[in-house]
Design goal:
With 390 residues, the chain is of the alpha/beta class. Helices cover 32% and strands 24% of the residues.
Length: 390
């Protein structure tokens, strides 16, 4: 496939004007000036001539295909597995049409997401590459216990990891704190596991060659997750019973260990002052700014599927980071190259470069100048497969 365009985003702040991208199957084989790349294309190559921008496919580091983004997403679990699968397939396709070509699914029921991921990989279902965790670990009655991952003690924690590995997990998810989705569970700032249980789970995952993503709202839970050696922190809101406590010493350890922070901002972030109150929301916003300015590897996750968070929200979520004063080029990097590296795909996707997977988005406009250009996706190429917008 030959794609020619007015602009090709070859780095997060560098355009190749009047450029072209050549792909062969799933792989990018050439990137360069239009005429130079055209000479390398075969005469029968499919040709897309585009007047906008070609950029890397987006990476959403935190989704839940099993949930529906309604005010009560847990209610969908009343459905049968087959009913859920049909809806999950639709949500995966919706992600793709938003420009997401890689998504990390961090919790479902009965390993259904593995079936969706395999269908996408085989090419029988349109959707992004999915890195799936399967069933998240939680204590009895803990956050998201309804997904079936209740464990107590080190042995059960290790056993759950092994089951997820056997099912095809690409990452292990652990609920180190409570969360708002579980109305009858621990509060968001409360820790859920002992140090011994966390260390056992992380050790088992790492022994299998898999990273660990820790759901961590509470400041104590964040500290405990860092102590245990997790690889990514999800939410990372530094909550306490009375407010927030961004611990500078723990943040420095996060930076030193290159632990990625996925703060999971929905496209409806402007509603947060109404939900939490102006002062509380501003503290939450400022904590994200402080982590980014301190040098933490902040990546983009939308938490698609939870309350009022659909699967078309990545472009809207990115405006949150621009609101914090983060330059557009850095925001795009957080949603492409940086996120890919954090998910273990640094040499695979996240860049428009020879040898990388052909994960591309064609948008009208210039996203370096205006992130709203990402709302105008015209074509998505995922693993070399072309998907036109309706």
């Amino acid at each position: 496939m030959l794609i020619t365009a007015d602009r090709v985003l070859v780095d997060t702040d560098t355009y190749l004007e009047d450029g072209a991208v050549l792909t062969d199957g799933e792989t990018i084989t050439a990137v360069g000036p239009r005429e130079e790349v055209i000479r390398q294309a075969s005469s029968d190559a499919e040709h897309i001539s585009f007047s906008g921008t070609v950029m890397p496919g987006l990476v959403d580091a935190h989704v839940h295909l099993i949930f529906d983004g309604s005010p009560d997403p847990v209610a969908v679990l009343r459905a049968t597995d087959e009913e859920l699968l049909g809806r999950m397939r639709q949500r995966a396709e919706q992600l793709l049409h938003t420009g997401v070509t890689t998504a990390r699914d961090l919790g479902d029921r009965n390993g259904l997401v593995f079936r969706v991921a395999r269908e996408i990989e085989k090419g029988s279902l349109p959707g992004p590459r999915i890195l799936a965790a399967g069933t998240p670990a939680t204590p009895p009655g803990g956050h998201c216990h309804f997904l079936g991952g209740e464990v107590s003690g080190e042995t059960e924690a290790r056993d759950l990891v092994r089951r997820n590995v056997a099912a095809g997990a690409a990452v292990i998810k652990v609920m180190t704190s409570g969360g708002g989705l579980t109305k009858d569970g621990p509060r968001s700032w409360q820790s859920q596991f002992s140090s011994e249980e966390l260390h056992a789970l992380v050790d088992e995952a790492h022994s299998a060659g898999l990273p660990v993503a820790a759901h961590a709202h509470g400041a104590d839970a964040i500290t405990e997750a860092v102590d245990a050696g997790v690889d990514t922190l999800e939410h990372c809101t530094w909550m306490t019973e009375t407010g927030f406590d961004l611990r500078r010493d723990v943040l420095q350890r996060i930076i030193d260990r290159d632990i990625a922070v996925s703060v999971t901002v929905s496209p409806h972030w402007r509603m947060l002052p109404k939900v939490f109150g102006e002062e509380r929301a501003n503290v939450m916003f400022d904590q994200v700014r402080q982590m980014a300015e301190a040098g933490a590897r902040v990546i983009v996750g939308t938490d698609a599927g939870v309350q009022r968070t659909g699967f078309d929200g990545m472009p809207g979520a990115l405006t949150f980071y621009a609101h914090l004063g983060i330059p557009n080029r850095t925001v795009l990097d957080m949603a492409t190259r940086r996120a890919a590296e954090a998910l273990g795909l640094g040499g695979v996707t996240g860049r428009v470069a020879p040898g990388f997977r052909a994960d591309l988005v064609l948008v009208d406009g210039d996203p370096l100048k205006d992130l709203d250009a990402l709302q105008r996706v015209r074509t998505v190429v995922s693993a070399g497969r072309r998907h036109e917008q309706d």
